[in-house]
Amino acid sequence: MLGFLKNPVVVTAEINVNLVALTVLGLISRLWGLSYPRAVVFDEVYYGQFVSLYMKRIFFVDDSGPPLGHMLLALGGYLGGFDGNFLWNRIGAEYSMNVPVWSLRLLPALAGALCIPLAYQILVELQFSHCAALGAALLILLENSLITQSRFMLLESILIFFILLSVLSYLKFYNLQRHSSFSGKWWFWLLLTGVACSCAVGVKYMGLFTYMLLLAIAGLHFWHMLGDRSLSNVSLLCHFLARGLTLLIIPVAMYLSFFYVHLTLLYRSGPHDQIMTSAFQASLEGGLARITQGQPLEVAYGSQITLRNVLGKPMQCWLHSHTNTYPIRYENGRGSSHQQQVTCYPFKDVNNWWIVKDPGMQQLVVSNPPRPVRHGHIVQLVHGITTRYLNTHDVAAPLSPHSQEVSCYIDYNISMPAQNLWRVEIVNRESDTDVWKTILSEVRFVHVNTSAVLKVNGFIGASLPEWGYRQLEVVGEKLSRGYHQSMVWNVEEHRYGKSQEQKEREVELHSPTRMDISKNLSFLAKFTELQWKILTLKNEDTEHKYSSSALDWITMDTNIAYWLHPTSGAQIHLLGNVLTWASANIAAVIYMCLSLWYLVRRRRTIYDIPEDAWQLWVSAGQICVGGWLVNYLPFFLMEKTLFLYHYLPALTFQILLIPIVLQHLSDHLCRSLLPQSMFNALIVAWFSSVYLVYHTFSPVSYGEPLSVAELKALRWKDSWNILIRKQ
């Protein structure tokens, strides 16, 4: 029974020495001296703020993209024991001792190092020689811009890693398709393709470009499968469902999971949550939640409320009034009603409180039991401090003459009667009998007499003059076709009024309230709101010293100074290997010209290369040229501040094309011994030159001290901004 123990257990394994050596070299090149400089380098000042907020569990919104990349950077900080206490306010600021610099930069560096063996394997899976694959990996290894970008707390190296992983996974899956469909390996690589694509999109939305490319290639491959008569209908359906599950459903589920983890970690209120709705703010610990937790849920006649405008632009604000009146005449000579001003005020204030009154009754307190206000009910809004009624009439607004002025009515005993009835319309109602709810309901107030809608003037510069204390204008919008967030309000703070006497009511308005009703948003509601804010929130794009256009990238006419030592000549620049960039451009031109030549000749039934070589050439172009174009061309359509590092994913695909073109030229154009020997010698000379250029620019990749003369010698282009101190 135990006879098998008589023989030793032998395990054999194949080790690709090339792959191991490339991985070791990649780790050395990216991890060597990783803690240097021990100072904030370029966009570390930006991403570091988010890492600190993760450490402190404080909510934030970053309009640059989804949260996975930020969470991975924060993971590095967590593993290093970072407590989040550092002021990220200046590039070049020295890190304090509590900041684990090596740990914070570790994951981007590892991702950058692993891109090298991934490049090798991609070319192997594309059916090119190991020599070509080795060349591609070495070009990635010796690319100065990729080295620089991967050695700091930045996201591009992580993005490129997931992009290359998704490409490799799909190629492995596709190659297994021919002989082992639905095997364990087949499922593994197909699933990993979807996971890697989801992670790429989760790091930066730029990952969506490669994801779309792979979906298109997968769709093309499946289209070809439809013509294979050896596959049954059931088999084709299974293939389709497998691809739909792994390339669509699972990536979407993973994308949602990134936000779920993000929102679970960031449960505390912070400075960024003010741009979110009141319901979202109330779901966070601290901040608005301390005020609103336990408020009455249903708004009733007699309720005391504050009304926040949903738009939140140009800033969040609340419906507000004060004792000052509109001037009798404006600067342009137009007259006003001289009624009490109504504005939208961007700060919490006792003058933001209003009382919901039943027009048919005089009392300003909540009855017992409370009578809830429903969609379609007519109400009057009484200003809590001045007890004047919210009113509008056919008088032009101060800044918007085509809209009606909104005021609190003062009876001057003239022929201008009060018009203070408003119909409550719940925009996000589920039925026409819905109750108006605190925080959750988004409502419009439609003026009964004129059908004007209460609206804040959301245009930048729409602040009232000095007489209106620079507060935002509130108007009655007469042409209220359709839905706009500037017309929508929600109750943020709410209490049931108990005091009928004005003096007692003023004391009540100044005091907080507590009742035992909680309002928790579902994850999907929070995700939808946060995703919408990320997509629509735009910070003002200002011209940056190192910003550039997409046309500047292809010839590297620009650079970025990442860090400068305060005393020595040591500095770090985002600069690429000039020879590699030029070679990549030439390779792209050669590929497209040769492809056009082959296509024309094949149309004439002239086949210059064998069919298998042609299919290999097309497949390589789909991945490398396609990857370059989809990651480059969209930037010509973007209205945002662009930097050289945005080109790095496209550049990576273009670099992979170089050895592909070289092998193709060697195999099919240099067929005799002498031309092939000369071609190989040229390749060796060219590769030696690539290494020399890498070595020349490595001091500004790693931040080594340089003299003024050495710095001047590195300025190969007049457009490069190499920093030289005056002597």
UniProtKB/TrEMBL annotation:
<feature type="domain" description="MIR">
    <location>
        <begin position="370"/>
        <end position="427"/>
    </location>
</feature>
<comment type="pathway">
    <text>Protein modification; protein glycosylation.</text>
</comment>
<feature type="transmembrane region" description="Helical">
    <location>
        <begin position="100"/>
        <end position="120"/>
    </location>
</feature>
<dbReference type="GO" id="GO:0004169">
    <property type="term" value="F:dolichyl-phosphate-mannose-protein mannosyltransferase activity"/>
</dbReference>
<keyword id="KW-0677">Repeat</keyword>
<dbReference type="InterPro" id="IPR032421">
    <property type="entry name" value="PMT_4TMC"/>
</dbReference>
<keyword id="KW-1133">Transmembrane helix</keyword>
<feature type="transmembrane region" description="Helical">
    <location>
        <begin position="246"/>
        <end position="267"/>
    </location>
</feature>
<dbReference type="Pfam" id="PF02815">
    <property type="entry name" value="MIR"/>
</dbReference>
<keyword id="KW-0812">Transmembrane</keyword>
<feature type="transmembrane region" description="Helical">
    <location>
        <begin position="154"/>
        <end position="174"/>
    </location>
</feature>
<dbReference type="Pfam" id="PF16192">
    <property type="entry name" value="PMT_4TMC"/>
</dbReference>
<feature type="transmembrane region" description="Helical">
    <location>
        <begin position="15"/>
        <end position="33"/>
    </location>
</feature>
<keyword id="KW-0808">Transferase</keyword>
<comment type="similarity">
    <text>Belongs to the glycosyltransferase 39 family.</text>
</comment>
<dbReference type="InterPro" id="IPR036300">
    <property type="entry name" value="MIR_dom_sf"/>
</dbReference>
<keyword id="KW-0472">Membrane</keyword>
<feature type="domain" description="MIR">
    <location>
        <begin position="296"/>
        <end position="359"/>
    </location>
</feature>
<keyword id="KW-0256">Endoplasmic reticulum</keyword>
<feature type="transmembrane region" description="Helical">
    <location>
        <begin position="644"/>
        <end position="665"/>
    </location>
</feature>
<dbReference type="InterPro" id="IPR027005">
    <property type="entry name" value="PMT-like"/>
</dbReference>
<dbReference type="GO" id="GO:0005789">
    <property type="term" value="C:endoplasmic reticulum membrane"/>
</dbReference>
<dbReference type="Pfam" id="PF02366">
    <property type="entry name" value="PMT"/>
</dbReference>
<feature type="transmembrane region" description="Helical">
    <location>
        <begin position="126"/>
        <end position="142"/>
    </location>
</feature>
<keyword id="KW-0328">Glycosyltransferase</keyword>
<feature type="transmembrane region" description="Helical">
    <location>
        <begin position="578"/>
        <end position="599"/>
    </location>
</feature>
<feature type="transmembrane region" description="Helical">
    <location>
        <begin position="614"/>
        <end position="637"/>
    </location>
</feature>
<feature type="transmembrane region" description="Helical">
    <location>
        <begin position="677"/>
        <end position="694"/>
    </location>
</feature>
<feature type="transmembrane region" description="Helical">
    <location>
        <begin position="208"/>
        <end position="226"/>
    </location>
</feature>
<feature type="transmembrane region" description="Helical">
    <location>
        <begin position="186"/>
        <end position="203"/>
    </location>
</feature>
<feature type="transmembrane region" description="Helical">
    <location>
        <begin position="67"/>
        <end position="88"/>
    </location>
</feature>
<dbReference type="InterPro" id="IPR003342">
    <property type="entry name" value="ArnT-like_N"/>
</dbReference>
<dbReference type="InterPro" id="IPR016093">
    <property type="entry name" value="MIR_motif"/>
</dbReference>
<protein>
    <recommendedName>
        <fullName>Protein O-mannosyl-transferase 1</fullName>
        <ecNumber>2.4.1.109</ecNumber>
    </recommendedName>
</protein>
